[in-house]
Structures are given as C-alpha cells and as structure tokens.
Protein: Cytochrome P450
Organism: Citrus sinensis
Amino acid sequence: MLLPRQTISHCKINGYDVYPETLLQVNVWAIGRDSRYWSKAEEFFPERFIDNSVDFKGQNFELLPFGGGRRICPGIQMGISTVELALTNLLYHFNWKLPNGMEGGDLNMEEAIGQSLTTSKKTPLMLVPINYSHPK
Ligand code: HEM
C-alpha cells in the first residue's frame, strides 16, 4: 500500500462515486501483479525489465515501488544507492551458487502472507558465497 490519500473533490473511479474527503488506499502490490499490464504477472521474472521503457520513479503508474506524486518517497535516491551498493559489492567480491545441488528452478519464490511494511519470501533464500579474487 502507498500512503493513504484523501480526495479533495468528487470523482468517479471504475463507476464508483468517490466523494470529497474520502480516504483512499492505493494497492500497488495488486497493480504490480495486474495481468493487463504485466505478462507472467504472478511470476518472479526480472527479465521483464530488459528493454522495457517502464520506469520506477513515479511516472509509470503500473510500477510504483517508491510511490508517486507529492508524497513520493523522498529517500528514493538514498534507497536506490543503498540497494545498488550492497548488491554490487556482493556480486563484485563473490561468485554465488545454490546449496545442495539446487537449480534456479527449484527456488520457491512465493511471498510470505502477513501484515508487514515489506514483502518477504516464504522460504528464505540460501546462497553459498565463493570468494572471487580479481586479477591484480
Ligand atoms: C529501497 C528503499 C525504499 C523504498 C522501496 C521506499 C518506498 C516508499 C514508498 C512506497 C513510500 C510511499 C510513497 C507514496 O505513498 O507515494 C515511501 C515514503 C517515504 N519514504 Fe521511502 N522507500 C525507500 C527508502 C527510503 C529511505 C532511505 C528514506 C529516508 C532516508 C525514506 C523515507 C521516506 C519517507 C519520509 C516517506 C514518507 C513521505 C511522505 O510522507 O510524504 N524512504 N517510501
């Protein structure tokens, strides 16, 4: 969910009358899994973003990880930098493999059900790091 919004005037959404000062919850989780906008909507399929012009900075409403409009996340740059820095360090210093002969297709990508600010995996991801020494 995004931060709640309150309407300032009367509007119609999908045929429903929404009156002024109504509190609205925008379910971005559901928008991000809407098969009208996403193929294989329920699948973990990050390749969908290759050569895709859909941006995540609030201009394309089918993908709103940081929200949008006046209440868009003010920490967006810090959030992106933090995630990219951690991920690039992990990929730069290690090769990674799955434990016990597992293949990528064996991973359970289901989400845990429950009230939480963030979505977490039902089955935690376990990986084996292999030290990678860059040639001097
Ligand atoms: C990957 C990291 C992050 C994600 C995915 C994220 C996501 C979000 C989302 C979805 C919202 C609601 C926006 C809306 O309703 O339109 C939000 C709001 C907010 N975020 Fe973030 N955020 C992240 C990192 C950060 C960081 C690093 C900070 C601060 C250092 C931050 C501070 C805030 C604040 C203060 C709000 C409330 C803004 C308001 O009340 O108008 N966020 N964030």
